[in-house]
Design goal:
By secondary structure, this protein is mostly helical. It has one domain (about 15-185): Orthogonal Bundle (Endonuclease III, domain 1), CATH 1.10.340.30. Helix content is about 60%, strand content about 0%. It has helices at about 15-20, 25-30, 40-50, 60-65, 65-75, 85-100, 105-110, 115-125, 130-145, 150-155, 170-185. Helix 1 (about 15-20) crosses helix 3 (about 40-50) and helix 8 (about 115-125) packs across helix 9 (about 130-145). The longest helix has 19 residues, at about 85-100. It is globular and about 40 Å long.
């Protein structure tokens, strides 16, 4: 996917090394980054590979028996705070990747001709609203150098995981987000 070998978003180096070169792992980590600590969300794809006993494959996950996938998500430890719902959402994303991008998650961004087209493609994925999609565009542009021209105009313009270059940045971004939320309440 890119020349970046690792994304330092968890305390587990194997996970960090999985995220950078594996587009589906990165996409699923972003999907799971919802109502769950960021570092645990991005650890989810690694847990999924370990429990399935294989590399991530959108076509395989799309066809996986639903109850078996839900059991994998339940763990222990859980892959997400809402294991059954996120197992279903993961399958929905994998079905979209299979059906629309020939089971290649990276094709979502490698074949997009512009930032706005990439943003539209991401927003069309199950579980990817505007904010999550804009953050993902930022990840592709800032961390991986893998976004199409014009990505800067549609990427998130607030502190996010896309701004985490080293593990210590996680706490900085988390505090910035907390302060933004607090300011929004006053």
């Amino acid at each position: 996917m890119s020349s970046v070998e690792s994304l330092p978003w968890t305390v587990d180096e194997n996970t960090n090394r999985l995220l950078a070169p594996d587009g589906l792992a990165l996409l699923l980590g972003m999907l799971l980054d919802q109502q769950f600590p960021m570092e645990r969300a991005f650890f989810g794809p690694y847990l999924l590979t370990q429990r399935m006993g294989r590399d991530l494959d959108a076509a395989v996950i799309a066809e996986y028996p639903e109850e078996e996938l839900a059991a994998i998500f339940r763990g222990p430890p859980v892959i997400h705070r809402y294991p059954a719902a996120m197992a279903t959402r993961t399958q929905e994303v994998c079905r979209t990747v299979r059906d629309s991008y020939d089971a290649n998650a990276e094709a979502i961004w490698t074949t997009a001709s512009s930032g706005p087209e990439l943003l539209a493609r991401l927003k069309a994925l199950p579980g990817f609203g505007d904010a999550k999609s804009r953050i993902f565009v930022g990840i592709l542009g800032k961390r991986l150098g893998a976004a199409p021209p014009g990505w800067e105009e549609v990427a998130a313009d607030w502190p996010s995981i896309a701004d985490v270059a080293v593990w210590e940045d996680v706490l900085v971004v988390r505090e910035q987000k907390r302060l933004m939320k607090a300011k929004g309440r006053t």
